[in-house]
Amino acid sequence: MFKFGKKRGGQVTAELMLIMPVFVLMIFFVLEYGNLAYHTVIVNHASYEFARIGALVAVKKPSGRSDRTIITQKIERAKQSVFGSKAGSISVNVKVENTGVDPMYPKHRHEDVVVTVTYPVHLLFPGTSFVLADEPRKKGIRKIKVVTRMPVEKAYLSADKK
Asked: Residue 71: helix, strand or coil by DSSP?
């Protein structure tokens, strides 16, 4: 019959020492993926809002051309107010693309604002940067890049039909 007082010679301790680092690393990876998912949601929403701002402020007059400098200035102001001190590390690129001409209003050109946000995320947990970080891995930074396209809001003029 088995006695509870019997010594096992450290078998449980040896097994724990073999399994514990792997288990802790697995927990760190799960938590790091949660951290990356959280920041991905933030970047997607910021990119959408920046594209929305660009689409609304792009044109000064009805049926006019989009002004990329105005769009960039407004987005930079929004970036500063949203991200505060982290705004310097976040890059936002703005492009205005022609997407065609309205057949009913030949003078009216369709344009899209394309906003690309690159957001660096500092990885929090030890060991995860060897797999999840961008090069150089020693820095422990993963860059999330999001591209959002939104049509520019323009008003039609009655003179556009000609």
From this structure: helix
